[in-house]
Amino acid sequence: MEYKTIQLAFDSGVATITLNRPEKRNAISRALVEELLAALAEVEKSAAQVVILTGAGKAFCAAWTSTS
Question: Which of 22, 29, 63, 65 could pair with 56 in a Cys bridge, judged by C-beta atoms 3.0 to 4.6 Å apart?
Fold first, then answer.
């Protein structure tokens, strides 16, 4: 699946999910939540045994905003 608000990478049994909305300080939006759930489902089906959740830019994650 192609993601717009996150990035998903696999390397040697490790999946890394990066919240990728640095211009919004990675604020949670409906689109991001949907993509995050899809990515987690993808990881669950993979051979990965570890998941790293990180954020792009200066902030890991900002609060939910209804206008994002």
Answer: 22
pLDDT, tens digit, 9 for 90 and up, residues 11-59:
999 999 999 999 999 999 999 999 999 999 999 999 999 999 999 999 9
Q: CA 54, CA 26: separation in Å to the nearest integer?
A: 10
Look up residue 4 and give its amino acid.
K
- Residue 9 bridge partners (DSSP): 16
**Alpha carbon distances (Å) from 51 to 9, 13, 54:** 10, 9, 10
Kindly indicate the confidence band of residue 62, based on its pLDDT and cuts at 50, 70 and 90. Answer: confident
Distance in angstroms (rounded) separating the CA atoms of residues 5 and 34: 10
Question: Please, is 23 exposed, middle or buried when counting C-beta atoms within 10 Å of its C-beta (0-12, 13-18, 19+)?
Answer: exposed
